[in-house]
């Protein structure tokens, strides 16, 4: 949490926006969107919008605020030394660690929470699918194989959510409403209204043994990299299943594939991959009882930018009145 | 609705149970299950449990109550003329129409409602999947094709449920809770708490034009056979999708396939087929953006028989006190 004294720049900031060419236009931040979103909190002294391949270095050097879909940390360190605030339009910032490029005078904020409604729905859908054995049914369909396996109701089944932040919390709320028993793991162990049973990462393997469905929704950090390896899969009960909406690096994919092929794990839904798009020759496409989703769990096409800029507007108000900013990244924790 | 005068047979009935050999044991009605379910409402004067291939014709001739997974209507007409009540353990009875084999002194009841919790969850899952374009994503996976198409939240989308009975009503409740706009079509047009907008079958094509997701949950009758033909699919907006948890006969499958192949319909989930298991050489297995489910939408493995027999117990109480039975089939309407 970054606390700021009331700051003059927040009422008339120099704003520099850099979009990523070729990315879905739903993510592009236009000058109009900035003016519309911020009109009640500030009047920009300067506003520059461009793509990163047509960078306006002079404007970036002068800027108080950078809004960007991808951060060029080298250039920020060398040239953008007056930045007070960097608003990243994605939730994950693991690609920018370690954060030694970030000046102590610059706050870095992410888009965490922008995805809540969408990811909550996606998480509920995926949990119901895993319960119903849809990955198995889809694999059977490829082989024209009708295998009927009746499943009881999902309500009452045990879901374990690793990472109860903005994404995991939104999923927890939908699963809780749908009648799942929801367990959660978060670093600080803080309770959550939608989580029946919260523990900390040191209890992970004990909790895995109780889980029907594991949902990975944590940031990728040195602590979470590879947490789902051979031992972790073996700790889950036979017939358990997995949803990954975090980052690919939290899973040892060779161990996942073994567990699916052996039938220990009944199914998996992956929405994140080391390399995206997943290459056409990647073996994951054909793993039995595994469904490949093209990274769609959290992003809605409508209003994404507006919801990001609402975080920025809120933070400008906070900065103006000297209150702590929200959505700040802790350079030590990495999220 | 069959109204009965208080009947002595209901307190000491002769009960004959016929199971179908080879069917999932979850559907088999045992003598223990009968005694457990009915112990508070009656003490059977006689109880026979057998498979249909070892029929005890003498016991059937004497019986007041027949409980059966499949009805041999010829034998019932010729031999079981003392039956007061036939409890069918499935919800659909379309295979027994026309009902001229049924004596006016025999009430026929089905298992409608037994499936509510399970089918409600399944309907919600399938509606979220259709909204998220999962049938398309699953087809793309077969071809190792990563095509990202961001979808907004499902809440607010328009679901149209054809047939708001026990199945359709349970689905309506879950969709309504999840924030869908729910329209319904039922023959009598009666309102339903979970349906925002109820109409009758004559409005079907008008309603189709407004539907993002169509859910077929009606009985198969002469009126509903083939309702989804070429004209009906064309009446739906481009990008709409379909779930069938009714009976295969309500759809003209050639028209469905055309609509999917042309891209007019964005996806379909079918849980019911003319012939089940769907034969390995059936073309439906490979239709793009179509998911084949092995008839699992409504049946839970646990407690199915107990929930069926709870209907019978309730009806025996009703018969004892002269109240109308529930779950009765109207021979004219066919459901």
Description:
- 2 copies of one chain form a homodimer.
- By secondary structure, the first copy, chain A, is α/β, with parallel strands linked by helices.
- Chain A folds into 2 domains: about 10-115 and about 300-320, Rossmann fold, CATH 3.40.50.720; about 115-290, NAD(P)-binding Rossmann-like Domain (Rossmann fold, 3-Layer(aba) Sandwich).
- The first copy, chain A, has 10 helices and 12 strands.
- Chain A has helices spanning about 30-40, 55-60, 75-80, 115-130, 135-140, 165-175, 205-210, 230-235, 255-260, 305-320, and strands at about 15-20, 45-50, 65-70, 85-90, 105-110, 160, 180-185, 195-200, 215, 240-245, 265-270, 290.
- In chain A, the strands form 2 sheets. Chain A has a 7-stranded parallel beta sheet. Chain A has a 5-stranded parallel beta sheet with strand order 2-1-3-4-5.
- In chain A, helix 1 (about 30-40) crosses helix 10 and helix 4 crosses helix 6 (about 165-175).
- The N and C termini of chain A lie close together (about 10 Å).
- The interface between A and B is large, with 49 and 48 residues.
């Amino acid at each position: 949490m970054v606390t700021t004294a009331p700051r003059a720049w927040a009422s008339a900031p120099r704003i520099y926006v850099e979009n990523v060419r070729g990315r879905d236009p739903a993510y592009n931040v236009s000058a109009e969107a900035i003016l519309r979103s911020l009109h009640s909190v500030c009047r920009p002294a300067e506003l520059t919008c461009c793509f990163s391949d047509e960078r306006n270095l002079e404007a970036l050097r002068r800027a108080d605020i950078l809004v960007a879909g991808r951060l060029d940390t080298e250039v920020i360190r060398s040239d953008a030394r007056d930045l007070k605030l960097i608003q990243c339009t994605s939730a994950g910032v693991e690609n920018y660690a370690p954060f030694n490029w970030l000046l102590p005078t610059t706050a870095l904020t992410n888009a965490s929470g922008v995805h809540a409604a969408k990811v909550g729905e996606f998480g509920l859908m995926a949990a119901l699918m895993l319960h119903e054995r849809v990955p198995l049914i889809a694999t059977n369909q490829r082989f024209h194989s009708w295998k009927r396996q009746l499943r009881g109701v999902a309500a009452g089944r045990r879901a374990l959510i690793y990472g109860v932040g903005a994404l995991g919390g939104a999923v927890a709320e939908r699963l809780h409403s749908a009648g799942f028993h929801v367990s959660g793991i978060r670093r600080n162990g803080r309770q959550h209204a939608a989580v029946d049973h919260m523990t900390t990462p040191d209890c992970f393997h004990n909790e895995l043994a109780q889980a029907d469905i594991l949902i990975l929704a944590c940031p990728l950090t040195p602590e979470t990299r590879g947490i789902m390896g051979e031992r972790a899969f073996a700790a889950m009960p036979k017939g358990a299943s997995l949803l990954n909406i975090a980052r690919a690096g939290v899973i040892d994919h060779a161990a996942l594939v073994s567990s699916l092929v052996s039938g220990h794990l009944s199914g998996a839904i992956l929405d994140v991959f080391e390399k995206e798009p997943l290459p056409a020759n990647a073996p994951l496409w054909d793993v039995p009882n595994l469904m490949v989703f093209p990274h769609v769990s959290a992003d809605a096409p409508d209003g994404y930018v507006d919801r990001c800029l609402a975080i920025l507007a809120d933070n400008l108000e906070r900065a103006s009145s000297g209150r702590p900013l929200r959505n700040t990244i802790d350079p030590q924790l990495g999220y």
